[in-house]
From TrEMBL:
Keywords: Membrane, Signal, Transmembrane, Transmembrane helix. The chain crosses the membrane at residues 100-118. This is PA2779 family protein. The lineage of its organism: Bacteria, Pseudomonadati, Pseudomonadota, Betaproteobacteria, Burkholderiales. The keyword Transmembrane applies. Residues 1-27 form the signal peptide. Pfam families: DUF6627.
Length: 120
């Protein structure tokens, strides 16, 4: 019985390997412009387009980042990372956002300054 089971298992494996190995593949060459157009999503174009602004370039250079290196890094990012960055660019506040805890900290610092400097 053990020999019959092994024989049946081997036959099933041989049939499955033969059945799965006959697949057709097609290869061809495409141009560099087609490859670049296929990978360029609108979100990636938005993020790369933001690097064209003079203010962004100035901020990158003041932080010590080469704009060319930043472009290469954006091209190397995954689609999920580019999506998150594009969402931040589109929906981020223009002048900054102070959270509730930020306002609490500002009021607390102002109260401490008033208590120790002005009240005396």
């Amino acid at each position: 019985m053990n020999f019959a089971f092994k024989k049946t298992t081997c036959r099933a494996l041989v049939v499955s390997v033969l059945a799965l190995s006959f697949q057709t593949a097609q290869a061809g060459l495409i141009g560099a412009d087609q490859a670049a157009a296929a990978t360029m999503t609108p979100e990636r174009a938005l993020v790369l387009g933001s690097l064209d602004r003079a203010e962004v370039v100035a901020q990158l250079q003041s932080a010590g980042v080469d704009p060319v290196a930043a472009r290469e890094r954006i091209r190397a990012m995954s689609d999920a990372e580019v999506h998150a960055l594009a969402q931040d660019i589109q929906h981020g506040p223009a002048a900054g956002d102070i959270s509730t805890w930020g306002w609490v900290a500002i009021v607390l610092v102002a109260a401490l300054i008033w208590y120790y400097a002005i009240r005396k």
